[in-house]
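Severity: low
Component: inverse-folding endpoint
Summary: output formatting inconsistent between runs
Steps to reproduce: submit the following structure tokens with default settings.
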């Protein structure tokens, strides 16, 4: 099964680096790339069929809109210069035990 990746608001050089890395894995596919076209809803993400969204960390406004939609897809955040990378995943609904599990040091 292939993993479809959507790139959002990535600077050209960073997008090319990600696309080059993805081509090394036959199970990964770049499903598309968007600039600032993500509006108040996550429709472009849904229509892309993406399994994972890769987003420029400098795009705080876009990130906040995506998080407000509570996407069921993991988000990979990359710093503008590539110096940092984070993965955000949906963890389900809030519960006291679930919260404690997430706060525990691994």
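Observed output (run 2 of 3):
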């Amino acid at each position: 099964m292939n993993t479809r990746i959507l790139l959002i608001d990535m600077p050209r050089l960073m997008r090319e680096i990600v696309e080059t890395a993805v081509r090394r894995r036959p199970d990964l596919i770049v499903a598309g790339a968007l600039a600032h076209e993500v509006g108040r809803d996550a429709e472009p993400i849904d229509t892309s069929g993406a399994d994972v969204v890769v987003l420029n960390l400098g795009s705080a406004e876009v990130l906040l809109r995506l998080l407000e939609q509570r996407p069921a897809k993991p988000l990979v955040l990359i710093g503008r210069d590539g110096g940092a990378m984070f993965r955000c995943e949906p963890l389900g609904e809030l519960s006291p035990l679930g919260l404690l599990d997430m706060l525990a040091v691994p």
